[in-house]
Amino acid sequence: MLLQHLFINGQWREGKTYQTLLSPYSGETIAQVAIASEQDVEDAIDGAVEAFKVTRKMAAHERSAVLGKVVELLKERKEEAAELIAKEAAKPIKTARGEVDRTIETYRFAAEEAKRIQGETLPMDAAPGGEGRIAYTVKEPVGVVGAITPFNFPMNLVAHKLGPAIAAGNTVVLKPAGQTPLSAYFIVELFEKAGLPKGALQVISGSGKTIGDKLVTDPRVKHITFTGSPKVGVGIREKAGLKGVTLELGSNSAVIVDEEVDNLESIAGRVVTGAYSFQGQVCISVQRVYVHERIADTFTQLLAEKVSNLRIGDPLDPNTDVSALITEEDTQRVQEWIREAESEGGKVVVGGEVEGRVLKPAILTGVPRSAKVSSHEVFGPVMVLHRVNSIKDAIEQVNDSMFGLQAGIFTKNIHHALEAAEALEVGGVMINDTPTFRVDHMPYGGVKQSGHGREGIKYAIEEMTELKLVVINRNEQ
After folding, report:
1. Cα(397)–Cα(369) distance, rounded to whole angstroms?
2. In sequence order, what E strands does 124-252 have?
3. Do the strands 451-452 and 244-248 form a parallel or antiparallel pair, or are they unpaired?
4. 80 Cβ partners below 8 Å, 6+ apart?
5. CB crowding 249-286: b at 16 or more within 10 Å, else e
6. Alpha helix ranges (H) inside 179-327
7. CA distances (Å), 50 to each of 9, 139, 198, 205, in order?
8. For this structure, is 344 an active site residue?
9. Cβ neighbours of residue 153 under 8 Å, at least 6 residues apart?
10. Which residues contact 297 (CB under 8 A, 6 or more apart)?
11. For the segment 187-220, what is each residue's pLDDT rounded down to a tens digit?
12. Rounded to the nearest 5°, which phi and psi values hold at 136?
């Protein structure tokens, strides 16, 4: 039985209490995980503050070298990392391997960007009175970064917090998700071996209230980067005061399928992949599909055939496409939402039943826009199809949402593509792709209740640095 301790000030520390970590798929015990006390959190912040005295003076090439070493160490332990994700998150192993590959790339981008943090010179004589002066800006690390991460990408979303923070010279106190702490503790071992200064990375698992509230309200923590629910994100912003916050929140991401498209079957396959990867527990998972009424019946049939061929089962089986949701409570919630949609006139085309602990991927049609499966974030293996009569109609329905993370459109018509790019109220528009597309150096974030700020290493570094202006007066005194 694995007994997972906290990692504070470069040392493994036993917790006063431990919590049993269960497999979402089998229900078997995976580990006993330490629960941080208020004093543990205090000590972690103290250590991060002290370590910042070292990291802020590290040369760019030194920070880059640490991150580059993490890349090499993770490459050596790829399969071990993927199996860990599969066990604690019930992420199908082939999807978990993909996450590890992306995590490697994320740290690689961070290693590269560590050498590109730069300011600019300003032409002071552009303004009257500026003659004889030289000005330039520098970007300095903010200090201690509080990072709070979710369960759905327990390694790569940790990398999107740690990578830019460390590249910029900050220190980090990381609170991983309760269901997936082992991935974070795995990564801290790699940073330790890579030569990150003692105390620069603290990892503490436990209560979101105990740890999160302290990180958000403690004035020594200068920036909060959070991925999770809009409700928690709004609370963080209200409590954070003047410190910086980056919030990557929820969505009910939509894709539009225009009436004139090539290879409808191929598009159906991509939509299915976008909707059911990791059981739909992805912020940019395809949840709403707006398909032109002329092709709606054909497209629905193609989707149903592909969904019926998805294999459900053990996440460690390389043939598994869909496994268990993160908790049984989430399974029950999604089923209740499906039943609510049916009671309001919706029809389940395929799926929706539970086999063992796995909720079978579902497609719904005829669902009112107000039903939870359409208007809220399902975070489960559910796709809702809506018929539309024009691109304008589709865009209006996509925008009729409290969320705005990413959206996609499949079309041959350049005018429709540009209209969607201009009018869709989202942080990212994917043309001839699903909203689930993401690579790790692009700016990523949303509008409305989908977030505040942007991730993507270069853009996150902007959030985790302060701009300082230096002006030199060369005039005779």
Report:
1. 8
2. 133-141, 144-148, 171-175, 201-203, 221-227, 244-248
3. antiparallel
4. 186
5. bbbbbbbbbbbebeeeeebbebbbebbbbbbbbbbbbb
6. 181-194, 213-217, 230-239, 264-276, 296-308
7. 9, 21, 10, 21
8. no
9. 99, 282
10. none
11. 999 999 999 999 999 999 999 999 999 999 999 9
12. -150, 160
Q: Which three-class secondary structure state does DSSP give residue 153?
A: coil
Amino acid letter for position 255:
V
Residue in 445, 456, 457 with CA at minimum distance from that of residue 233: 445
Helix (H, G, I), strand (E, B) or coil at 281: coil
Q: How far apart are CA 73 and CA 304, in angstroms?
A: 42
Taking alpha carbons only, the member of 12, 7, 15 closest to residue 33 is: 15
Rounded distance between C-alpha atoms, residue 420 and residue 392, angstroms:
9
End-to-end CA distance of the chain: 73
Neighbours of 297 (CB within 10 A): 12
Is the Cβ–Cβ distance between 179 and 153 less than 8 Å? no
- 421: part of which helix (H) or strand (E)? helix 414-423
Count CA atoms closer than 13 A to 352's CA, side-chain side. 20
pTM of the model: 0.97
Q: Which amino acid is at 99?
A: E
Q: Are 279 and 355 spatial neighbours (Cβ–Cβ below 8 Å)?
A: no
Cβ proximity of 458 and 441 under 8 Å: yes
pLDDT tens across 242-271, in order? 999 999 999 999 999 999 999 999 999 999
Q: Which of 88, 248, 377, 455 is catalytic?
A: 248
Q: How far apart are CA 44 and CA 61, in angstroms?
A: 26
Contact 225, 246 (CB under 8 A): yes
- Which residue shows structure tokens 């920036």? 223
Residue pair 69/193 in contact (Cβ under 8 Å)? The answer is: yes
Alpha-carbon gap, residue 273 to 95, rounded angstroms: 11
Tokens of 196: 């990150």
CB neighbours of 330 closer than 8 A, spacing ≥ 6? 379, 380
Chain Cα centroid distance, residue 247: 10
Question: Among residues 210, 216, 225, which one has the least CA distance to residue 39?
Answer: 210
Write down the catalytic residue from 88, 283, 455, 463: 283
Strand, coil or helix: 17: strand
**Contact by Cβ (8 Å): 144, 171:** yes
Sign of the C-alpha dihedral, residues 381, 386, 432, 454? Answer: negative
Contact criterion met (CB below 8 Å) for 82 and 99: yes
Tokens of 378: 């399902």
Rounded Cα gap, residues 385 and 300, in angstroms: 8
Phi and psi at 357, nearest 5°, equal -105, 10
Q: What is the pLDDT of residues 8-33, one digit of tens each?
A: 999 999 999 999 999 999 999 999 99
Structure confidence by residue, pLDDT tens digits, 419-448: 999 999 999 999 999 999 999 999 999 999
